[in-house]
Amino acid sequence: QVQLVEYGGGLVQAGGSLRLSCSASGFTFSTSNMGWFRQAPGKERESVARFIVSGRVPYYASSVKGRFTISRDNAKNTVYLQMNGLQPEDTAVYYCGVTIRGVEYWGQGTQVTVSS
Hints:
By secondary structure, this protein is mainly beta. It contains no helices and 11 strands.
């Protein structure tokens, strides 16, 4: 079955960096439109960065463009999110996710906290 496991969250000061990883299994990873999402307290889950066009093209939310980079290693079935220039408003639980044949799958989430 589909499994997604995130790693790499933590506490960082404003202006700092973190790298999140998501290990995937149970589906054809190489052409999947994997993505990173986040949910802050009291807010809806939002897309941060994701692959489109059968997993080939990265797409970013305007709030993170230029600061975050999504990448993937198809040999390791892993997708990454490099987050630079973190700000307190980036504080949230970060999830990796994928939609397969119309069904959404999510990891368990990893907390990212940015202190001012």
